[in-house]
Amino acid sequence: MMEIENGFLYQQECEIVVIGDIEVPDSKWLNLILEENSSNSALDDETCLSLDLVVTAPDNGSVRLCGPRPRFDGTSKDMKSNISASGGRKQRSDAVLLLGLTLTCQDLGHIIIKTVKFRIHEKSQISEEQATAMNQRVASMYITFNVPHVIMKSMRGRNERRFISLSSKMLPPSTQLLLMLMRSDWDFLDATISASNNLKIGEMNRCQRRPSLFPSKLLLNEVYPRIRSAASLDLEIAQELKSRLDPGKGTLDSLPKDILEHHIAVFLRARSLDSLRRTCKSIHRNLSSVVPGMSLNLYDHQVKSLGWMRYRETQSISEGDLISTTSRRVHCMDGDPHRSASGGASTLLLDRIEGAKAIHISQFDGEEVVLQRDNPLTAMVARGGLLCDDPGLGKTITVLSLILQTFGLSTSLAHDEAKETTIHDKKNIEKASDQLIFEEYWNENLVPRDRISFMLSFLMDLSRDNRFTFGYFELPIDPIRDGCPDYYEVIKDPLCFKAIRQKVNDGEYSHFADFERDIEKVLENDLKYYPPGDEVHEAGLKLRESFRRITKKLKAKTIKTAKKSFSRAGAKPNSRVAALVEKNRRKKLKDSLTPSSSTLLVVPGVLLEHWEEQLSLHVDLKYCTCKTPIVFEYRGTNKCELKMEQILAQCDVGKTHFPLLFIDKTGTRKLPPPNFLSKFSVVLTTNQRFTNEWKNGSLEDELNRKQGDTKLFQEDDEEPCTLLKVNWLRMVVDEGHSMGRGTDNSAISFASWIHAERRWVMTGTPTRQTLSQTGLVSIRHLLHYLGHTFFSRRQNGDTLWSNLVTKGWNRGYLASFYRIQALLSLLMVRHTKMDIEELPPPQYQTTVLPMSKEEVTTYNTLVCAVQSNLLITSMEGRTSGAQDSLLDKSQSRHAKRALENVRLVCAGGTQVLPTLDHKNWTEFIRDIELCNPPPENLAAVKQYLSRAVTGGLSACGSCGMMLSTLLVFPCGDLVCTECADRDSRECVVCSKPFDVDLFQRLQPGMLYEWLHNVEEELKKKKNKGVGTSVSSVNVEDSIATLDGGAGVMAPLDPTQPRRRSRKPGDGHACLYSPKTTNGECILCWKQHESCNFMTSSSQCNECFQRAEDCPESETKSFHVVTNLLGLYTQQQNRGQQIASPSSIEIQLATRRPLKAIVFSQFRKVLNMAGDRLLRRFGGGCIAEYWGSFRRKELSRFIHDDTCFCMLLGKDGSEGLDLSFVTHIFFMEEVWDKSLQEQAVARAWRMGAKGSVVVETLVAQNSVEETMAEMEKGSYNPELTIDRGSDLAGAAKQSKLKSSEYQRAKLQYLLKGLALVTNQYTSSFGVNKRPTPIASSISEPLAKKQRLLDRRVRFQE
């Protein structure tokens, strides 16, 4: 029997190496001959043979493989080759990996390769970058093959087909990967081959090259670039519409597009517009960008996303709808919708012949998977998805457009249909449902032996209940004995209880319905033969009544048992009974909800004002209704309750108003009742509401309480949240990545309790910068929220997810990578900013700044403290101090604080002063004197201690480095932490041996006090008397009267008593004297907050306060101030130079005004840098997005031309539209790069008229440089974690959790800290740099020892 092709692999672009001249004028498809030819002398480069697919020049329509046949086992480790010119591992090409994968599977006997073909593109069709190598070419390739099968007997005795493998063991990773990559949609391949002559690779995707097929690393961040945007999704929705208009008879589709779009469609409401779009394909296509009530024109990517979202919301899709290969209800990129929806649980096989039947096989063992449409366990595809456009691409506008385009849709239609159902019909429906539960419980939970006992017991109960009438029907009818000569002529199918009992014992009843039907048949025969009034007829009537009563009671008892046993969500996964019980419960719960046409928007609290602003700016509320629209801000007060009654009267009685928008301004107070909330079209609340209301339980818990199950509830329990009592049309969660973090949390649980027909998640970062394991958990949580039930508990989702994704990911199986990709490609739409040609990319630059003398001193002080802890706790002695090491798990909080302090010092503006209390001072002097050091050493130690606590520096006895803190040896020598050797027990200066325990006890218990430069300067000025001169004030001017006041008197001299009236401050207006420069009001002494020092005299024109220059000792603040001053001066000069503007000068004049952001993730850094900015430019020029005034400050930054800089922290990294910003300064290297991307996205977004300059400031030779190197990909936990660490085992197996991964990074940075050596730290004028501790990062640490009271501590 000839094997027919039933699968193929296709790669549009891959790189190959061709030996010889290439002359393929027709660019035709060439066969690849797979004969090994390792002795080919045309190419001797072993590296090339290992990394690339090398073929000979085309000859007679075919090419020949050079070198050995490649192999690929489907794991991440085998993607790279050990052979490279540099001696490292390099990524193998897609062509080598694809061909090696198919050859490996063929060697295993799992497939039979039929054809391998290449199409080598001409030079004119490839870019210059691709043609750099002389023999490297771009090609397309496809491989067709057959997946053989055998027919085997299953354990149930049925014939089952098993593909690939004869055993039930899990398939190898190579075969799993092949089943994940293969396709069977032959129409796609045929169309691609026929159109290949017109395909020009060089002209495709000029803006963004497609990523390679295989990832460089097994990371989630490698998945997202491989998810295509909505622009590339071939939805073909318009082709599904049948044209109902004749375009040749002057219909609407014959009108020009601009007339139809701008002069007709804009005047239609949502339902009318939707009806018009459905008339024909051309109108559907032309009106896709029209959004009723939206004042903005959508960008192309927004139109594509909106169309995709409408498509995903169209209808509810079950697993049964994914079976047919011709079904167009679900769109997926690879032609296998069930594989995408199930995350790779099955693969579609379709023979390459007309009319072939589709077959689904398991990716675990290759067994055929039979999918049924009427299965109660049928999983549902999420009716919604993930909108994951990059931050700044207008996701808010896209969602608002979706709401406006579907305005008027409601969940009340199904509710009204259910309401019109009669009570009799409801009882029949409930009865049919209970009957189905009973049948499934019978088939699923009772084995054949139990069924026999059950039916015999039933017959016994029936005979006992009818002992006088049961005998008529026990035995077969004897025509002569029973006087019924014509009985068998009338009754064609006679039956008796004896025969039924015999059939029971023989196991012929597999369903209780068959048993029940036979008993009914016995009684029907009796009633049919014997006339009414006959004794046997009357006995049959009584027996039938008794039978039905006993049957009803028995079924009710069984159904009650089934419902009770399967009521829990986790009870018996994959149970049909449990699925039916849950379906029943959900239907009752849905019937109790209040129908609505509302969209529930859940946003972070900081973005509530942003959504309000977007709604008010871009949505015409009057366009949505002919009535007066109502926007209700709910604050939970009595005034709101009175207003609610007024709204109900206006809407229900007067019918003059329309409830449009409800804004939840409080996240703690009880919400209005559901009948009030459901009237609004949009309900806007915060995720704080979810967290607070979760503790009150779900609506299902309340229904159980009302049914009498009060054991688990108290009388004072609060009612569930009102949000749970409404059947929402749609629920949208903004910044949904935060909801998916960690384990099952309150937000995820509460969101899953809410009933919404459509569910969406908006996020610019699907999973923040974290380990893939944590990211996989987040994705699983988001699937649970979306209602994608393929991985629900009822479907045994925990086991399925573990087998498909988690286990394979941990083992490095690439099949798990592509399963996640297929699943997200179905549920996610994503556009990147590189897809948008109109959006200029930002200009990134990193400025490395050398630290000043003060900063170096402070930095070295903290580094010495950390190094001292690591060194002393690692030295072996009689007592162990390992538990006090900053590397120990128990000290993680102190380790984070220590690293944070070091990073804070890099920003400048602070000093650290070592302090020693009297007790520790006395103990230290006593201990060092007991060691009997030489007198000169003892004196030097005492001088060192005095200098340390006063901010002085001391020299290291070994290298001469000047430091504030040093290690004290028992011999009295002072040595820095980098000169000391943890493995040596001799002093590095005098080589005198010492005791480790004595050395540990000898170190003084230093505390470290923070000193802020600005505060210290103010203290010095106060001590020097800098400020207002009292003697210069005239006596007659010593008292001033408030203008327009009520007799409030205020002295100019603060030393004089202040006079007040009974109404202090009445009519007060601040006054400032030019004789003072401190900026304080001479009446109330309040500081002027809106100074503007950007004048010719660098003095505020109102309060006469002068600008203060930033000292150069604060390197980063000085750099920012200097740059801002230069940019401001350039802007002013540009405006003054244009007197008679030319075209170039007009272009310069229309440049964007200076608007800069200074960002830091540390509040202390913003305070220090912000203080310097305020003192140089004035409060009127600097805004601060912080606290309760952030909205006011943001408005000032946007609209006030004099305010050109704003301080921004982590709370402003999401939701803000700052597209007008020209410069962003990052004060430090950001730990979480996704946070930095979010901050940049505030300015790099739709609406930006120019490129934003992003500058990151890095302190030279500091921990920030190490962090920058880590972000470049050089950090590998497996190589940097010590063998003795508790993280070593997990790192070796690549099973680090997110918290463990962060701790590994923290340990790496702490161990890599090194002292800064320059001209400021050398006492001899020679920079002698010792070997840094970072050079021994990967070496195993010895046992660490440290006393508990010698721990490194920092004062708050």
From TrEMBL:
Which keywords does UniProt give here? ATP-binding, Bromodomain, Hydrolase, Nucleotide-binding
Using the UniProt annotation, give all residue ranges assigned to the region (Disordered): 67-87, 1046-1067
Q: Which GO terms describe its cellular component?
A: nucleus
Q: Name one GO biological process term.
A: DNA repair
Keyword ATP-binding tagged? yes
InterPro entries per the UniProt record, alphabetical: Bromodomain, Bromodomain-like_sf, Helicase_ATP-bd, Helicase_C-like, P-loop_NTPase, SNF2-like_sf, SNF2/RAD54-like_C, SNF2_N
The residue ranges flagged as biased composition, category Basic and acidic residues, are 70-80
Could you identify this protein by its name?
A: Bromo domain-containing protein
Which source organism does the UniProt entry give? Cylindrotheca closterium
